[in-house]
Amino acid sequence: MKVIHVITLFLVILGGLHFALTGFGISLLPAIFGTMNLTVLYIVMGVSTIYHVLPVLRTHLNAIK
Predict the structure, then answer these.
(1) 61 exposed, middle or buried (CB, 10 Å; 0-12, 13-18, 19+)?
(2) Counted domains in the chain
(3) What's the domain range around 8?
């Protein structure tokens, strides 16, 4: 696997855990990263998710044709 793929996959999993735990009132990212500007981290997680979703969408759209 490419290094970028592993890093972005980790960020996608971390983002999913964060949003799942937020439903229970637990903020995972501030606990891990402290007072860092989380906006940048959220943007990087969003881009990582797009990086992983686009190939899946392409595959499904090609299968529909």
Answers:
(1) exposed
(2) 1
(3) 3-64
